[in-house]
């Protein structure tokens, strides 16, 4: 008869030991998961704050005060989008051609109108060589820039800053600008590179020795540097004036927006972060959009706008009688265009045609 007698108490003790091991393993697993979740949360918080801190804000409302066009209840949303030719920073200076050019100018200017319902949009290009009346503006440091007639539109930014550009556009158009977006050379290049390039249908051979851009007619996929040269070329197309390149800028805008939409970049967190980081590093907005949350909410609200249905128009202009190298708003067409945008109504066909075309 065996002496190895297992008492009921011993058997119970062994049975109890097994669950303790399982519990210990479960605790370790939960602990690891908790650490990973906290790490992920910390990383997400760090990434969010990094992107959020990239965006620079300008308090347009404070700078302009109450002397502004009335905001009509059915006027939709109006954005002023500027491409700045700032040479600040080594990359911007290199992309801008270097040299001794100081300050910054509004190299590209678009008033983007999104009607109520946000299912379509209209983009109006303002030629940089347009002679305008600059209103009196408050400059940085508390000084005042006096009003002046017949100044080039793109010089307003350098003379008095972005708030004065908004004020100038509002005075010339009567359109209340709801938001302001500005991106510089480096930001534009990095954004295009981040999405893998943009395909455009080049309308004719371009041989621009000044920028080094050489393209043959037909579909071409452009990287960031080529895209920047494409939207800035003056000598490679048309009569060498600013008017000739506006068509390229409008075409590229549609292609860029279509590329973003086709890649469903907002649905891919990895891609979205890369693009958001590239864009926000060189982005300046009005204070109402100067946070990642506000910018993302606004972008989501625009999701219903199909780039293919966006209409692009150049502000109707005529060559200035005193200086043929400059243009002025062509009336009554320019007035008809701005009136339609103010009132969110159909734009008359005549208001879409410009006497000066740059062809």
Mean pLDDT: 80
Helix fraction by DSSP (H/I, runs of at least 4)? 40-55%
Rg calculated over all Cα atoms:
28 Å
Q: For the record, give the distance between the C-alpha atoms at the N and C termini, rounded to a whole number.
A: 113 Å
Indicate the low-confidence ranges by residue numbers: 87-93, 95-102
Helix-strand makeup class: alpha+beta
Q: Note the total helix count.
A: 11
User: Major sheet: size, sense and barrel closure?
Assistant: 7 strands, mixed
Which shape, going by the Cα principal axes? globular
Q: Give the topology string: H per helix, E per strand.
A: HEHEHEEEEEEHHEHEEEEHHHEHEEEH
How many DSSP-defined strands? 17
The portion of residues forming beta strands comes to 15-25%
Spatial order of the strands in the main sheet?
A: 1-14-9-2-3-4-15
């Amino acid at each position: 008869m065996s002496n190895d007698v297992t008492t009921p108490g011993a058997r119970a003790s062994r049975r109890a030991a097994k669950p303790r091991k399982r519990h210990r393993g479960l605790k370790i697993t939960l602990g690891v998961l908790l650490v990973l979740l906290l790490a992920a949360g910390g990383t997400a918080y760090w990434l969010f704050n990094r992107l959020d801190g990239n965006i620079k804000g300008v308090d347009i409302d404070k700078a302009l005060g109450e002397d502004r066009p009335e905001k009509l209840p059915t006027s939709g949303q109006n954005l002023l989008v500027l491409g700045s030719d700032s040479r600040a920073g080594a990359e911007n200076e290199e992309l801008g051609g270097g040299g001794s050019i100081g300050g910054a100018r509004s190299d590209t200017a678009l008033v983007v109108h999104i009607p109520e319902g946000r299912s379509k949009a209209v983009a109006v290009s303002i030629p940089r060589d347009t002679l305008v009346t600059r209103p009196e503006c408050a400059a940085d440091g508390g000084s005042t820039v006096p009003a002046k007639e017949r100044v080039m539109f793109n010089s307003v930014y350098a003379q008095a800053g972005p708030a004065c550009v908004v004020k100038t556009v509002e005075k010339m158009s009567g359109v209340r600008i709801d938001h302001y977006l500005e991106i510089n050379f480096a930001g534009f290049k990095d954004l295009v590179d981040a999405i893998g390039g943009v395909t455009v249908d080049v309308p004719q051979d371009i041989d621009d020795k000044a920028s080094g851009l050489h393209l043959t007619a037909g579909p071409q996929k452009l990287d960031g540097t080529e895209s920047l040269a494409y939207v800035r070329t003056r000598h490679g197309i048309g009569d060498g004036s600013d008017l000739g390149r506006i068509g390229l800028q409008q075409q590229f805008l549609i292609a860029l927006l279509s590329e973003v939409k086709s890649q469903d970049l907002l649905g891919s967190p990895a891609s979205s972060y890369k693009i958001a980081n590239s864009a926000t590093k060189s982005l300046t907005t009005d204070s109402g959009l100067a946070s990642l949350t506000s910018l993302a909410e606004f972008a989501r609200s625009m999701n219903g706008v199909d780039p293919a249905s966006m209409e692009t128009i150049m502000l109707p202009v005529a060559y200035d009688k005193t200086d043929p190298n400059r243009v002025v708003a062509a009336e009554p067409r320019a007035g008809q265009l701005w009136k339609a945008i103010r009132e969110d109504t159909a734009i008359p066909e005549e208001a879409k045609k410009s006497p000066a075309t740059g062809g």
